[in-house]
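Case study 2.
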Amino acid sequence: MGADFLQKAAPQFEKCWDKGRLDLVTQDLFNRLPTTKSRAFEAVLLGGAPVKKGDRITIDKVGRGLLVSRGHTELALSEDAPAAVVAAIEANCGVAQGIVDEVHEMARVVEISVCIARPQ
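Prediction:
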């Protein structure tokens, strides 16, 4: 009942990071996780304005299509964008920001991803 008892009676100390990991994924008031949902669509290039991968662009809802521009220069037009993307941009006052994902020069098509804030 000497050393064996003391080893069994003493609380065991075990190093682990589980609690810290749980704290990182627990949502709270000061959590800074992004609240955006990325969507993508294709558009046909207009004119000869240079477009490259990574360009930040503006997307406007025009009629039933989406007009892609940089500043005052119209770059591309999409008349068959997914309905979910068009509806999300329309709900965002008809304007959204996007990034050019891919440029297909031969086909004169660009792939654009749009970041739209999710409703809270």
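Helices lie at 3-9, 18-25, 83-91.
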